[in-house]
Design goal:
single chain, 215 residues, mainly alpha, Endonuclease Iii, domain 2, Endonuclease III, domain 1, 2 domains, 12 helices, 60% helix, elongated, iron-sulfur, glycosidase, metal ion binding, HhH_base_excis_C
């Protein structure tokens, strides 16, 4: 079986089991998605959604975040990790959106990554989920699953992103993000993978190696 054939089977199985899934972060517009994604760094989406439920009612615009008092914003997001840096970055990010982008969230990758607190992962979340631009998002689940499946040997998220871009058809880039996340949450769980229940196990070189070590 060639790598291309393997990828095709994996993509078909992911779609069969999870379908076209949607972004897990609650949002109604691009700036809410941008801020929620900044908050989601090293934090669960569920926790972020709990916080943004009230946060987006208090701060109802980019301008409101740009003018926020940092200490007060820190308290508003205190239950999320790294709240000090995230509050600082959100304020700086929104100030730049106002001064350089006319209060609009850009879709260009370089422009997005020029914003405080925005790396390739955050930029690609916005590009894919709001603007519909084919983008691969490498979070902890995508990193783990793609490594176990033998789709990459890299650990660096940017290198993994480019590895996946080479072998996954462009029209599948957005779907594979949320499908791999769903798989990582339900079956390929970091510390207790359910290999016996995994429909991808026959194609999972890493999972097979782990099972051999246990036996």
């Amino acid at each position: 079986m060639t790598k291309k054939e393997k990828v095709t089977i994996i993509l078909d199985l992911l779609r069969e089991h999870y379908g076209p899934t949607k972004c897990y972060l609650n949002h109604e517009n691009p700036w809410q998605l941008l801020i929620a994604t900044i908050l989601s760094a090293q934090c669960t989406d569920d926790r972020v959604n709990l916080v943004t439920k009230d946060l987006f009612q208090k701060y109802t615009s980019i301008q409101a975040f740009a003018e926020a008092n940092q200490a007060e914003l820190e308290q508003d997001i205190h239950s999320i990790g790294f709240y000090h840096n995230k509050a600082k970055n959100i304020i700086a990010c929104c100030q730049k959106l106002l001064t350089e982008f006319g209060g609009e969230v850009p879709s260009d990758l370089d422009e997005l990554t020029s914003l405080a607190g925005v790396g390739r992962k955050t930029a690609n979340v916005v590009r894919g989920n709001w603007y519909g631009i084919p983008s691969i998002v490498v979070d902890t689940h995508v990193k783990r699953v793609s490594n176990l499946l033998g789709l990459t040997k890299n650990q660096d998220p940017v290198k993994i992103e480019f590895d996946l871009m080479k072998i996954v058809p462009k029209d599948k880039w957005i779907d594979i993000n949320t499908q791999m996340i769903a798989h990582g949450r339900k079956i390929c769980i970091a510390r207790r993978p359910k290999c016996a229940e995994c429909f991808l196990f026959p194609y999972c070189t890493g999972g097979q190696a782990l099972q051999k070590k246990k036996s």
